[in-house]
Every structure is written in structure tokens, then in C-alpha cells.
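Session log. Operator J.P. requested a structure for one protein chain; no other inputs attached. Running the standard single-chain path with C-alpha cell output.
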Amino acid sequence: MLNPLVDARAHFVLPEGCIYFDCAYKSLTPLEAAAAAAQSPTAFDGPLAPEHAEQLRTELADTVARLVGLRADDLALVPSASYGMALIRGLVRLRPGDEVLLLDTEHPASALPWYAACRLAGATVRLVSTSIPDLTEAILTQLSPAVKVVNIPQAHWIDGRPIELDEVARSARELGALLIVDATQSVGGRPFDIPASQADAVTFSGYKWLLGPIGVAYFYLAPPLRALAPFEHSWISYAGNGVSMFDEDGTIQLPPQPADGMQRFEASGLHNPLTLRMALAGANLVRKIGPDRILEHNAAIVARLRREFPDQVLRTATPCHFTGMSRSDPRRVARLLAARSIHVSARGRFLRISPNVWNTESDLEALVSELRPL
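Structure written below.
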């Protein structure tokens, strides 16, 4: 039986008759976020709009930071996880002979920046085979003194297999390598403590497990790296909160100095009150329910799928909040399910099933019933 989150479904916009198991693609919209989106844009016009946006930005950063064991000033807001990955790629200096460690089925948004960086530097990408069930062990066996960057997720984006980041971090640090994490498919869907992970940089989008809109993401750098030059040279990354770019007599200070800490990595153009309010509604709902309860609920669904389809769903030592079913025809199966108003994703040779707290026992029964003959 599922963990009874009896009121969870009522918090989301969900069309009648729709069964949605595709949170790893895009979250459903919380009703509070939908209400914010429905407000007229003129509600945010006028002389108080900039101050209002800054207040929302601070509240959002604080809410998300608490979910990952940080303070608000430990996070920079960026438009996407890809932006964060490009940012850290620009801060790392690779040399000929260096290696970057990636999973062989890593998400393109995480892998492509490092392929580009290696081409420019004469470095090499080393791939870790994901055919090995224990991804943590597979990564550890590929570490060597030549590896300068380990770029991995906390949960594999196709099948949800978790990786013990602290174990990888300890080994990487002994070799002088940086640990970079794309946590898009984990933050909000399972507990994730950034300090405990010992990651040097973490980037994650907010429109999946954080239940937010597309266009708001988050970026973290370990304190020793925060003195690096900003990626984007904008007023926000230079002035920061409450820091004037002008002398007392009104003369602009040139050249201005980058803001301290993570503020220097903040992207411009994100202070849209409408978008920030939607992101805040989603993050607040995740905090209200709790990532531990979300993991418990979703892991029960994954466990049921493993029992029903033991030859197709990989068994793992730790709970998964979503999973992939190995199929020879995942796209055909996804289309057939969609025709029955059951929504999942086809990724490679896997049918990715990613539930969340809006899914009920009846949803699960319908999914299993439809999958059996396919």
C-alpha cells in the first residue's frame, strides 16, 4: 500500500481522467502556482515591483536552500541546470592529458559542456559503463590520478539508480579531482544534503521534482571556489544585494567589483515576480510534504513495479523515487499508454516511470494492468 498522502492530489492541476507518471519530464503544476500564473501581469507593475521581486527571490532562495542543507546566500538563481553546468565548465581549467569522468548514458545537458571543454583543452572524456548495476562502484573503479573532474548525478536520469556521492567525493578529493553534480532528478524527489555530499558544485532545475516552472534553476559552489570570476558580467553579479555601484555624490564606480560569494554567479533577467511566485509555491509544497515522505511514497510504487515486472525493473540496494523498465519497444508502449491517458516517458531502451505524491493506488493499479499485456 502507498503511504497515504490523502490531500496531495488536491494540490495539483490534473485533468479529469489523466494518470501522470512523468515527473522526471515535468512536474504537474501546484494549484497555488497556477493561481499565481493566472494573475494579471499588471498586478506586478508599478514602482514597487523591483522590491517585490527581490523579496520573492530571497524567500525562494531561502526555501530551496533549506531543502538541501544550505543558507539562502549559498545558492545563486540561474535559468537552467545547463546554465549552471556551463558556468562551472567555464571556471575549471583543464590541461592536455586531464580526464573528465562521465556516465556513458549521462544526460546531454551535463555531458556536452565537458566534451566541448576537453576539445578545447586537449583533455579526454572517460566514460563509466552504466551496465554495471552498482553505479557508485562503477564510478570508483574508474577514478585515477588523470581524472580532474567527476561529473555525475545523484540519481540516474533514466532509471533512478542512486549514487553515493559522499563515497565518490572522498575518493575524488584524494586524487585532487572536483566533484560536479547535476541534481535535477533528485532535489525534491528524495533527501539531498549538499554539504554532506561534499560536492564542489551542484546545479539543478526547479521544474521537475521541485514542482516549479521552467526557467528557474539553482547553482551552488563550495566556499573555496566562490572567489572565482563571475560567468556573466551584469549589474546583479557585480553589485549584489544592497551594494551601490555609485559614490555618495552619484558618480559611478568604475571598474566595479564583483559581488562577494554566490551573488557574483547570479544570472540576470530572473527577477520576474510571476515566475518567482510559481517557483516558491512549488518549493513550499515540497517542504510541507517533505522529501523523505515523497521518497517513501514513490519508492513504494517502484517496489510494486519490481514485483510485477522483475525481469524489466532493476533492483537496487537503496530506494528509488522513479525507475526505468527495460523494453525493446519503449516508444510504442509509451504511445499506447498515452492513448489510455497514462503518461510516462520513453528514454533510450527504457520506459521511464516517475511518480509523485499525486499518484494514488488506483493510478498504480491502472498502470500495472495496462502494462501487463504490452
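Operator note: The mean pLDDT is 90.
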